[in-house]
């Protein structure tokens, strides 16, 4: 949890949506006046409402002026209207800054300091509370001023026409989201690509354990140079970049990837982000590096229990990681019979496991203690044996520590000897169904053979 002691909400009096939101805030809580010689202000616990006469987008240096008046804060929320030609009933959250000239406040080629954790929490709250209303909620790309602020800031907006700006439901939803604000620390990305309403980034923030700082839409990408990209990463406190690849032109994507890698950051795909499970980025990276040494193309899957253990650990120090394994052939055979049963056993335990590029279980298990890794490997081995016993004829050789599993399988050679060539009838027999050829019925038993498969039961510890 980040420092949330002082949050300032800016109400622009000429802005009807801003006034609407602040009226709802003041109605919902008991605010007291804040004595100062500069602004009309009201406070409730960690929140301070400040009224200004001008428009939000032209408030460069506002945080400095507030501090000089004794109203400093950790976060500035600009409660604002959103204007759009499409007339959508929409609630938005975004950060500010200019990648080129400053037509609407701020300074040219300057980006504000985002509040990624707050933005994440607010858009998730808006999404949830919008479900029973006629409004939709989305993140927007970085745009307009102010940009010259050293305090973290964001805009939360009601759009897109005068009717919506004054809408009581919209005002209450936004006010509720602000009052419920909390800021959990998760990995932070800088986003590239998409339209102004960044749908892919919004989806990731709402469904995965990450936040976004600055987000740049397609039309801004050709304007980004090394200095702007570096500014975006540093001010966002970002760990990595995310590309909306399908929305980006190949040459633009390659150019930006080169800049980002030269600055020392990685570009993660959506699958990588979802795999991260909200763990601190440095911890996840170290975790991934150790795992890749064992299985290059595998993906990590975390059970809920180990996720919580890792999240509660110090983010700068990854806990010791212990590996164990079971016989891959044993696991593969059991998985083909009853994958759900294996999943249920795994999900009850404090472990992570690996899946190969085809989504099948790898035989490697990961835990934070040697005892847990060994115990789960032994339990899983026993469960796999039970699954196989229930579905196959099995002999156990204790002296050799091995299973002999009798498996029936289709024999193409036998089918061909009975006059069945490769084709529809061949396939039907292979699926265990009888066929008729030249008036003769061929049943599956005639073309199946029994073979004995030997599975060595090794010590489950690596």
Automatic annotation (TrEMBL):
Its cofactor is Zn(2+). GO terms for molecular function: D-aminoacyl-tRNA deacylase activity; zinc ion binding. Keywords: Hydrolase, Metal-binding, Zinc. It comes from the Archaea. It catalyses: a D-aminoacyl-tRNA + H2O = a tRNA + a D-alpha-amino acid + H(+); glycyl-tRNA(Ala) + H2O = tRNA(Ala) + glycine + H(+). Pfam families: tRNA_deacylase. Monomer. D-aminoacyl-tRNA deacylase with broad substrate specificity. By recycling D-aminoacyl-tRNA to D-amino acids and free tRNA molecules, this enzyme counteracts the toxicity associated with the formation of D-aminoacyl-tRNA entities in vivo. Belongs to the DtdA deacylase family. This is D-aminoacyl-tRNA deacylase. It comes from Candidatus Argoarchaeum ethanivorans.
């Amino acid at each position: 949890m980040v420092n949330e002691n002082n949050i300032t909400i800016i109400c622009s009096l000429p802005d009807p949506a801003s006034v609407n939101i602040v009226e709802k805030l003041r109605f919902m809580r008991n605010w007291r006046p804040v004595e100062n010689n500069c602004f009309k202000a009201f406070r409730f616990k960690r929140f301070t409402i400040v009224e200004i006469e001008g428009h939000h987008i032209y408030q460069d240096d506002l945080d400095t002026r507030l501090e000089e008046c004794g109203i400093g804060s950790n976060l500035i929320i600009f409660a604002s209207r959103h204007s759009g030609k499409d007339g959508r009933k929409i609630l938005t959250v975004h950060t500010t800054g200019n990648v080129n000239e400053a037509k609407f406040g701020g300074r040219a080629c300057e980006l504000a300091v985002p509040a990624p954790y707050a933005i994440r929490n607010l858009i998730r709250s808006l999404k949830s509370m919008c479900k029973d209303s006629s409004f939709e909620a989305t993140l927007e790309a970085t745009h307009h001023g102010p940009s010259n602020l050293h305090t973290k800031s964001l805009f939360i907006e009601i759009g897109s026409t005068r009717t919506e700006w004054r809408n009581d439901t919209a005002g209450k939803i936004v006010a509720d989201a602000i009052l419920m604000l909390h800021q959990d620390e998760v990995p932070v990305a800088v986003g590239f690509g998409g339209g102004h309403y960044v749908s892919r980034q919004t989806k990731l923030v709402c469904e995965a354990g990450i936040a976004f700082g600055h987000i740049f839409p397609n039309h801004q990408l050709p304007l980004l140079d090394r200095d702007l990209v570096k500014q975006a990463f540093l001010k966002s406190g970002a760990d990595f970049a995310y590309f909306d690849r399908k929305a980006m032109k190949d040459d633009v994507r390659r150019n930006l990837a080169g800049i980002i890698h030269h600055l020392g950051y990685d570009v993660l795909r959506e699958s990588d982000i979802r795999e991260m499970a909200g763990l601190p980025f440095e911890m996840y990276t170290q975790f991934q590096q150790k795992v890749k040494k064992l299985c290059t193309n595998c993906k990590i899957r975390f059970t809920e229990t180990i996720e919580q253990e890792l999240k509660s650990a110090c983010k700068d120090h990854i806990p010791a990681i212990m590996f164990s394994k079971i016989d891959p052939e044993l696991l593969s055979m059991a998985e083909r019979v009853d994958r759900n049963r294996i999943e249920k056993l795994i999900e009850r335990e404090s472990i992570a496991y690996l899946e190969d590029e085809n989504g099948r279980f790898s035989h490697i298990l990961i835990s934070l203690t040697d005892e847990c890794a060994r115990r789960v490997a032994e339990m899983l081995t026993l469960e796999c044996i039970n699954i196989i016993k229930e579905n196959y004829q099995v002999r156990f050789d204790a002296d050799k520590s091995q299973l002999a599993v009798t498996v029936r399988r289709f024999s193409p050679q036998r089918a061909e000897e009975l006059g069945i060539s490769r084709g529809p009838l061949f396939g039907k027999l292979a699926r265990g169904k009888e066929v008729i050829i030249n008036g003769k019925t061929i049943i599956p038993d005639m073309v199946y053979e029994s073979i004995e498969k030997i599975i060595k039961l090794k010590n489950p510890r690596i």
